[in-house]
Amino acid sequence: MNLMIVLVPVLLLNMVFARTTVIELNFPKGLDQPEQQKQLQLQLAVLPDQVVLADSLGGVIRRVPNLDTGPDLKALRETLKQVKARLPDKRSITLMVDDRIDYQTLVSLMDTARSYPAVVAAQLVHAELFPDIAVTDLEASLADRLGGGA
């Protein structure tokens, strides 16, 4: 009985309340789709020295070199806003991540690709960019082609 009286307060004092957030992700679509079903897919290749926005047909839309502190999220956000203006119905993007990229950088890039802050009617809201995010590994051959191979 005395053990329970001691254990309960000790366990309660050691309890840590952590805020947990769930980020919904999608798996990338298979590469074996028939030709008539293939459509434009946006891809964000995350390399150690730059972030490359490209399409699924192999065309590079823009290369965003990293700053000293990491990816240039502001320049990337502006580029994604321009792409969204041209493709307003597009909701998905695939992040192809190099294995040298840390977790916090990945989450920051996902947040940047998902939405951006905008002022609407004197209120700050998050305007939608590409909320359906898929994450996959960046293949070495693709990294070499995009100019970020090690």
Description:
- This protein has a single domain (42-146), classed as Nucleotidyltransferase, domain 5, CATH 3.30.420.
- The strands form two sheets. Strands 3-2-1-4-7 form a five-stranded mixed sheet, covered by helices on one side. A two-stranded antiparallel sheet has the order 5-6.
- Strand 5 (115-120) and strand 6 (123-128) form a beta hairpin.
- The protein has helices at residues 2-14, 73-86, 103-114, 140-146, and strands at 42-46, 50-55, 60-65, 92-97, 115-120, 123-128, 132-137.
- The protein has 150 residues and is an alpha/beta fold.
- It contains four helices and seven strands; from the N terminus they run αβββαβαβββα.
- Helix 2 packs parallel to helix 3 (103-114).
Give the key terms.
single chain, Nucleotidyltransferase, domain 5, five-stranded mixed β-sheet, 150 residues
- Reading side by side through the largest sheet, how are the strands ordered? 3-2-1-4-7
Report the biggest beta sheet as strand number plus sense, adding barrel if it closes.
Answer: 5 strands, mixed
N to C succession of SSEs: HEEEHEHEEEH
Report the principal-axis shape: extended
Query: What's the pLDDT, averaged over the residues?
Result: 82
Find the CATH topology. Nucleotidyltransferase, domain 5
**Low-pLDDT windows of residues:** none
Rg result:
21 Å
Structural class, from secondary structure content? alpha/beta
* Annotation field: number of helices: 4
The helix content is: 25-40%
Strand content range:
25-35%
User: What is the correct CATH architecture?
Assistant: 2-Layer Sandwich
CA(first)-CA(last) distance: 62 Å
Using the coordinates above, name the CATH class: Alpha Beta
Number of strands: 7
Integer tally of domains: 1
